[in-house]
Write a structure and sequence with these properties.
6 helices; single chain
Amino acid sequence: MSVLPRELRNARVWEQSEDLEVRWSASTATHRLIAERREDSLCIDAIVLPLDDAFETRLDAARQFWRALNGRSPGPLYGALPQQTRNRHILNLRTHDARRAAASYRMIAEVLLSREPIVPRDWRDHHLRHKVRAILRRADRLVAGAYRDLLFYPHSRSQKSRR
């Protein structure tokens, strides 16, 4: 694919031995390219990606770059948390905050999980009682440091995932 450097908005081009190095700030990221010079255009024959732990992220960046070169929208972001997962983490943290504010488990269940008040005599055997406990266990793990895994999503920081 031949690309004219002036077609790349926000591009900085400089010579690096026989090749040209291009740093291009697209709408979503900054791309670093090394291209051959052919007359007054750049010739991009390939994108070389190292096969490391970040390969999928690099592959998505290359896909977005290709789409931008062809005038297409960047498409969905790789590694964005699914909406259901985001909602679950929000619920975990709201539950944790409620407990730190000295709310009872029944009050937490009524406010965050139920549409109707829970009668005190029903609370002992209510299904939301166990659900609140499970949510608080997840919230405790999240607050204790598991939130850092969200920074690396969809990759995992733990060694368990590499087995």
